[in-house]
């Protein structure tokens, strides 16, 4: 797949995304919009588009980095406890600082996501049985344990309603003023690009890295920190988007190999295209109502995931 | 010159290397032989600073390897562990280009790419340089890894069982290349090897290890000796001289 087709797809879907919705805005009337139409475009549609693109691209790249560093194709923020830990962090910040600013929530959530991911990596070190499927199962169990802890405290503090908004990814609430936290992901992605070579070398193991004079621990820590940062910012603004970090990098690997220098741009673009597509579907299926993104991504994503699992021998995953 | 003085290493209080002292000359192939569990891999991993020593000194050209900077050492000494562990989908060329990492930190210059091309040519991998590693045979993959080490361009090259799972043709090809690297490019090579006949035919010096101790070290012809090998492997090994080569018959 050529990169320019992906760019083209992002542009086409972005345009479609901007002009779908209850308020009728057509591309032809772009230059003579009414006051109300202008407001809808600036306050809701454009922020929504930006957050979709950032969430899709950054969650896919985070998945790619985590797979590289854990040397397992099925590890991602959803299957390593990162998302569940980020959510626990949001809950804790709501309990401790009752009126936490988004930035405070984000910091606490980041700390939890980071700690959760490190614990998972430690568990990974201890496991002797390194089967490709077994490890993400351990991650899912670990994530569910953390989730049940969150649930327990949420029940006790009457925060269940609040919690569920982070359980399900949803772009319909995105408006200018509440999505800007997403921009935190962008420096993370730039760092990922700068360190692409080092992540690939670290993906070949500690001995291999040491032989080439690479500080393995430092690179792994940086990669996990980027993952935790991006995940917590996305969970806080949009909610949990399942499968994204799992399937997008695997699809790209099939045709592009594993060298991060070659896969980063493809992964980011394909992630954005995929989420844009799922969001558009979610917005037109029961128009004028909406299906949350976590549902559409979940349905389409799990289908792709099962397909990948069944064909993994063929693709060498 | 690689120098080991009274090196000790234990895992869980169980000694695996006991009081090993060695000197390895420049421009030679030195083979480490011995039964399973003798500590060969541990020793070679310590010389390449992959695992820490408990006691003793390991120096390369007079410099302590555990004091040296990681990146400086990566230009001096390279190690190839058993290569089946890599499960990334990389092309041969991408793998070989990683050999230049210590020099360029990932931003390869024209000169770096020149070295990559040279290494690929040296290992006769031009035809398959854009293939993914997983598409290659075991022998081809091993050659790709050695090409990476050549691109890394270190004076000292350490290989841990480079002939593992290779057929005779691939094994001979690898050993001939290693010999060429020493004779033409004056590298110093240390290998852990199980096949004593390959050790006998291709190395200058042999170190025989048993139970973590050096049993015998010296020129290949001195170590490939009936009495030494009997002590080493606890079995009778007949040694025949064929075309000036000492061949062990133990089947």
UniProtKB/TrEMBL annotation, chain A:
Database matches in SUPFAM superfamilies: ABC transporter involved in vitamin B12 uptake, BtuC
Subcellular location: Cell membrane
InterPro entries assigned: ABC_BtuC-like, ABC_transptr_permease_BtuC
Pfam families listed in its UniProt record: FecCD
Membrane topology, as annotated: Multi-pass membrane protein
Cross-referenced Gene3D superfamilies: ABC transporter involved in vitamin B12 uptake, BtuC
Chain segments annotated as transmembrane: 5-26, 46-67, 88-121, 133-155, 181-204, 224-252, 264-285, 291-310
Protein's UniProt keywords contain Membrane: yes
Main location: membrane
Domain of life from the UniProt record: Bacteria
Keywords, ordered alphabetically: Cell membrane, Membrane, Transmembrane, Transmembrane helix, Transport
Family: Belongs to the binding-protein-dependent transport system permease family. FecCD subfamily.
Protein name listed in UniProt: Iron ABC transporter permease
UniProtKB/TrEMBL annotation, chain B:
Keywords: ATP-binding, Cell membrane, Ion transport, Iron, Iron transport, Membrane, Nucleotide-binding, Transport
Family annotation (Pfam families): ABC_tran (PF00005)
GO MF, any single term: ATP binding
Keyword NAD set for record: no
Location within or outside the cell: Cell membrane
Top-rank taxon: Bacteria
Major localisation: membrane
Domain ABC transporter: 2-236
Membrane topology: Peripheral membrane protein
PANTHER family: IRON(3+)-HYDROXAMATE IMPORT ATP-BINDING PROTEIN FHUC (PTHR42771), PETROBACTIN IMPORT ATP-BINDING PROTEIN YCLP (PTHR42771:SF3)
Name the record gives this protein: Iron ABC transporter ATP-binding protein
Organism: Oceanobacillus caeni
């Amino acid at each position: 797949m050529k990169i320019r087709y992906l760019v083209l797809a992002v542009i086409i879907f972005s345009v479609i995304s901007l002009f779908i919705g209850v308020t009728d805005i057509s591309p032809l009337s772009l230059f003579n919009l009414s006051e109300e139409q202008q407001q809808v475009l600036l306050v809701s549609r454009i922020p929504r588009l930006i957050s979709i693109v950032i969430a899709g691209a950054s969650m896919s790249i985070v998945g790619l980095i985590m797979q590289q560093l854990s040397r397992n194709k099925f590890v991602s923020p959803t299957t390593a406890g990162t998302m569940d830990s980020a959510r626990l962090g949001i809950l804790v910040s709501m309990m401790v600082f009752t009126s936490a600013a988004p930035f405070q929530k984000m910091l606490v959530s980041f700390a939890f996501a980071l700690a959760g991911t490190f614990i998972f990596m430690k568990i990974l070190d201890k496991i002797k049985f390194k089967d490709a499927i077994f490890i993400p199962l351990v991650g899912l169990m670990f994530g569910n344990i953390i989730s049940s802890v969150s649930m327990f405290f949420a029940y006790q503090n009457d925060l269940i309603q609040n919690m569920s908004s982070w359980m399900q990814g949803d772009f319909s609430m995105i408006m200018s003023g509440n999505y800007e936290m997403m921009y935190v992901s962008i420096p993370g992605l730039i760092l990922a690009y700068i360190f692409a070579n080092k992540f690939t070398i670290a993906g070949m193991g500690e001995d291999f890295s040491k032989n080439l004079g690479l500080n393995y621990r430092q690179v792994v820590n940086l990669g996990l920190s980027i993952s935790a940062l991006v995940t917590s910012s996305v969970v806080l603004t949009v909610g949990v988007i399942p499968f994204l970090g799992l399937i997008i990098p695997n699809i790209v690997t099939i045709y592009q190999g594993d060298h991060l220098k070659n896969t980063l741009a493809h992964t980011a673009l394909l992630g954005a295209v995929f989420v844009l597509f799922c969001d558009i579907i979610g917005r037109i299926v029961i128009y004028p109502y909406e299906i949350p993104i976590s549902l559409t991504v979940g349905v389409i994503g799990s289908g792709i995931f099962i397909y990948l699992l069944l064909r993994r021998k063929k693709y060498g995953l | 010159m690689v120098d080991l003085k009274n090196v000790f290493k234990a895992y869980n209080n169980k000694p695996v290397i006991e009081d090993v002292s060695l000197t390895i000359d420049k421009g030679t192939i030195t083979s480490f032989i011995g039964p399973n569990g003798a500590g060969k891999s541990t020793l070679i991993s310590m010389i390449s600073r992959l695992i820490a020593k408990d006691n003793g000194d390991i120096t390369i050209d007079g410099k302590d390897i555990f004091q040296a900077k990681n990146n400086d050492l990566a230009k001096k000494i390279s190690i190839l562990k058993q290569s089946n562990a890599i499960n990334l989908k990389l092309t041969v060329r991408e793998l070989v280009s990683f050999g230049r990492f210590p020099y360029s930190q990932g931003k390869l210059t024209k000169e770096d790419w020149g070295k990559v091309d040279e290494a690929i040519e040296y290992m006769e991998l031009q035809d398959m340089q854009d293939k993914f590693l997983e598409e290659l045979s075991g022998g081809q993959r091993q050659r790709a890894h050695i090409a990476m080490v050549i691109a890394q361009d270190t004076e000292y090259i350490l290989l841990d069982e480079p002939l593992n799972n290779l057929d005779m043709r691939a094994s001979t090809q690898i050993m001939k290349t290693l010999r060429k690297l020493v004779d033409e490019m004056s590298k110093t090579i240390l290998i852990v090897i199980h096949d004593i006949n390959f050790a006998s035919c291709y190395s200058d010096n042999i170190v025989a290890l048993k139970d973590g101790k050096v049993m015998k070290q010296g020129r290949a012809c001195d170590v490939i000796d009936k009495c030494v090998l009997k002590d080493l492997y606890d079995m009778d090994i007949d040694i025949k001289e064929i075309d000036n080569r000492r061949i062990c018959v133990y089947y």
